[in-house]
Amino acid sequence: MKKKVSSPEIDVLSYYLLPEMKVLGEAEKTKVLKKFGIGDTQLPKMYSSDPAAVALKAVPGNVIRMERNDGTSKYTAYRIVVEE
Hints:
Distance between the termini: 31 Å
CATH superfamily: RPB5-like RNA polymerase subunit
Radius of gyration: 15 Å
CATH class: Alpha Beta
Number of strands: 4
Shape: globular
Order of helices and strands: EHEHEE
Structural class: alpha+beta
Strand order of the largest sheet: 1-3-4-2
CATH topology: Eukaryotic RPB6 RNA polymerase subunit
Number of domains: 1
Helix content: 10-25%
């Protein structure tokens, strides 16, 4: 009988190349979708099994705001969490 080897816990959100991420609440989600005049299915997708989504405890239907600062400007992007 093989033992299941557990992997050490790694905080993927603290990696320096990963942008800051936050799960939006329903009010914020509605505001963002209205601002861009789109439906949630028109956002880029992120699988619920993505390590960042798992670390954020995001569930399908959540919208994640990602903020990246490249030294000259700050960029914001949004992703919707979907089932794989």
